[in-house]
Specification:
- This protein has about 240 residues and is an all-alpha fold.
- The chain folds into two domains: about 90 residues, no CATH class; about 100 residues, Homeodomain-like (Arc Repressor Mutant, subunit A), CATH 1.10.10.
- About 75% of the residues lie in helices and about 0% in strands.
- The protein contains 13 helices and no strands.
- Helix 4 packs parallel to helix 6, helix 8 crosses helix 9 and helix 11 crosses helix 12.
């Protein structure tokens, strides 16, 4: 039987009512955008963020078949991740092959636990492809600068110090970093510290003040200000929502 547009529309409206009635919801657009911003930079914190998405209920999109539902979610993820990698600049032809291969593997896997393991492998593979691409994208100076930032998050990192470590003039480093990364050095340092702060708030019992100190913020209040600026929540609100 071929459904009419009106019948399909009615089914969608009934589904909306069901979501509201049962208080089902997906992760927010802001959370999804944050994930892809991290992913496109090759930041491993993107994978940690996926754990937060798992806190949302998995809505059935498999006509009552749990395995089919999980497969459908994974195929949707393949489509989104493929587009994100294309936007970063990963070779399109390689991506088509990757996409086809993953979808075929998903369809040939009929065990839920195996699908969950396959999903983790998939996201790790995607991040690796982006990281490999970006390694070629960033020049040696910027790569070394990023490595230093990651190694010294708890310490003051003035531009003059970073420039001295990579043997260039501060003005040159500032211009080069902004050109290649799309952020100033200061913006990148702050973003990296905030992402580490998210991880620590979720997976440790350290106080906000201690986390701020570990991450090199002079005052807990400034850490809280920057955290809310980047995430839309205070550190306390974020930790509460993650428990």
């Amino acid at each position: 039987m071929v459904l009419s547009f009106e019948e399909v529309n009615e089914e969608i409206e009934q589904l909306k009512l069901k979501y509201r009635r049962e208080r089902l919801r997906h992760h927010s657009y802001e959370e999804e955008k944050h994930f892809f911003d991290l992913f496109k930079k090759g930041d491993p914190a993107a994978l940690s963020l996926l754990d937060e998405f798992d806190d949302y209920p998995h809505v059935d999109i498999g006509a009552g078949d749990e395995v089919r539902s999980y497969k459908n979610r994974m195929i949707i993820a393949v489509a989104f991740m493929t587009r994100a990698m294309a936007e970063v600049g990963v070779d399109h032809e390689d991506l088509f092959i990757e996409s086809d291969g993953w979808i075929d593997k998903i369809e040939r896997t009929n065990n839920l636990d195996e699908l969950k393991s396959l999903e983790k492998f998939f996201f790790k593979r995607c991040l690796l492809l982006v990281q490999n691409h970006l390694t070629g994208k960033y020049g040696e100076i910027v790569q070394n600068c990023i490595r230093l930032i990651n190694q010294h998050l708890s310490e003051p990192m003035p531009l003059t110090w970073l420039a001295d470590q990579v043997n260039v003039h501060p003005n040159y480093l500032s211009t080069l970093f902004k050109k290649e990364v799309g952020q100033t050095v200061t913006e990148y340092i702050t973003m990296t510290r905030i992402e580490e702060g998210r991880r620590m708030l979720r997976y440790s019992n350290d106080s906000v003040a201690m986390i701020a100190n570990i991450l090199g913020f002079s005052q807990p209040s400034y850490f809280s200000y920057q955290f809310k600026k980047h995430t839309g929540q205070t550190p306390k609100e974020y930790r509460t929502n993650m428990t």
